[in-house]
Amino acid sequence: MIPSKVHAVLDYLMGMILIAAPWLLGFADNTAATILPVVLGASTLVYSLFTDYEYSIVRMIPFKAHLTLDFASGVLLLVSPWLFGFSNRMYLPHVILGAIEIGAVLMTKPKPVTEAEKV
């Protein structure tokens, strides 16, 4: 199981990867294939900053709600090539990154570790 502290680091990494992926992987063409990962990456960074876990700035969003957002983002990313009609051109980055995001949610402990639990 992934602790919330590790999940937080993964969130920030995934957000940056999603934003950069269209340029790193050569599909930056201002279509849904480009816009969706950038928007999902930016939103991941923003809601991570407001999640009730170790590496946030303001702890407003419950961790379970955060995991729900991550899961929904992963599913949307995974199905986006077919949902938005660009699967004939490319789909693998969206499917792989979406599956990684879903996997991270499914392997994460659903609540941050408290100080009492660390002892």
Top keywords for this entry?
single chain, 119 residues, mainly alpha, 5 helices, 66% helix
Describe the model:
It is a single chain. The chain is 66% helix and 0% strand. It is an all-alpha fold. It is built from 5 helices and no strands.
Question: How does the SSE layout of this entry go?
Answer:
Elements (H helix, E strand, L loop, with lengths): L3 H21 L7 H18 L13 H21 L8 H15 L8 H4 L1
Helix pairs in contact: 1-2, 1-4, 2-3, 3-4
Helix content: 55-70%
On the 0-100 scale, what is the average pLDDT?
Answer: 93
Number of strands: 0
Rg result: 15 Å
Q: What is the 3D shape?
A: elongated
Distance between the termini: 18 Å
Strand content: under 5%
Uncertain residue segments: none
- Secondary-structure element pattern, one letter each: HHHHH
Structural class: mainly alpha
Q: What summary fits the major beta sheet?
A: none
Number of helices: 5
Quick recap of the structure?
The chain is mainly alpha-helical. It has 5 helices and no strands.
